[in-house]
Write a structure and sequence with these properties.
- By secondary structure, the chain is an alpha/beta fold.
- The protein has four helices and 15 strands.
- Helix 1 runs parallel beside helix 4.
Length: 303
């Protein structure tokens, strides 16, 4: 029994079946992101062959093609089974935290895997949120320090039971709606994998913003309520729209690959990899932005 021939036959047949399902529009082409993310299974399968092929337990070598069959057709099956089903998850996690303490400053960290993220301001609550999930409720941590009257919020997506299979096309219609208090200054850190979003920070007293984006389509609106805002945006294969107040002094420094850049309703002077607003030294607020990574399209809009 030649296990290598069986393994190669399984790979060719499975790949052919998935491509056929792609061409017939039964399975989205995004399935290949899921299949390729399981590439270590190939190493495991070959290792099983090496261990058992020429021993008294040679029948266990058949596990090699079986594993490869599951790794290729498994994601395709879940994509196929998902087609036509309701896009919204069955459950929503609601959280709310009032202004229970004399907060002076807030630090918030958000880890959202895939879907659509909407953020804005709240006038009477520290945070309110509606967070969609599949099987595991998001993790919410609230820590208040009496020493300096600061609060730290962590909101993490822990619904990872199908990580590696549920890529773009599965959770794209999950929604996280988050509203933060507009009464205290904030430092925000947001991380995501595959996301679209509308982040309206114009009414927040935002002093620091860190965005770590992968394969995302995002609109970010910054405001001028803080005297100084430092923003770092690291994006890979992402589209980004930045809305900037024309009453603020803006400095933008890019250490990123930009395939396309467009400016609307705003004039920025340029020197090498730096952009800044002209004749705005008298502005009451300053915004400094660092762009990193690989941004497929950048649009900067003044308002």
């Amino acid at each position: 029994m030649n296990i290598a021939k069986i393994r190669n036959g399984v790979i060719l047949t499975s790949v052919g079946l998935v491509l056929l399902l792609n061409n017939l529009d039964y399975v989205d082409w995004a399935v290949w992101l899921s299949i390729l993310s399981l590439w270590p299974v190939l190493l495991i399968a070959i290792g099983i062959e090496k261990l058992f092929a020429r021993t008294v337990l040679s029948f266990l070598a058949l596990l090699s093609p079986v594993l490869l069959l599951l790794a290729i057709l498994g994601p395709a099956y879940f994509y196929l089974d998902y087609q036509g089903k309701p896009d919204s998850p069955a459950k929503t996690f609601n959280l709310e935290k009032g202004m229970d303490f004399p907060y002076k400053k807030g630090y918030a960290s958000l880890d959202f895997k895939t879907g659509k993220l909407l953020m804005s301001s709240s006038q009477d609550k520290l945070i309110t949120a509606d967070l969609d999930y599949w099987t595991r409720e998001p993790l919410f941590i609230h820590n208040y320090s009496e020493q300096d009257s600061t609060v730290r919020l962590n909101v993490n997506d822990v619904d990872r039971s199908w990580k590696g299979w549920f890529k773009d096309g599965f959770n794209k219609n999950r929604h996280w709606n988050i509203y933060l208090s507009d009464k205290i200054p904030w430092e925000l850190e947001i991380e995501n994998d595959v996301m679209s979003g509308d982040l309206d920070f114009s009414e927040l007293i935002l002093e620091k913003l860190t965005l770590d984006l992968d394969v995302s389509n995002l609109k970010v609106k910054l405001g001028n309520r803080a005297k100084y805002l430092n923003a770092t945006i690291e994006a890979d294969i992402s589209k980004l729209v930045l809305l900037l107040p024309r009453t603020a002094r803006v400095k933008l420094e890019k250490d990123a690959t930009l395939s396309s850049t467009e400016f609307k309703n705003i004039t920025l002077d340029r020197s090498r990899e730096k952009y800044w607003t002209y004749d705005s030294d008298s502005a009451d607020s300053r915004i400094e932005i660092q762009l990193r990574g690989d941004i497929s399209k950048l649009e900067i809009v003044g308002y």
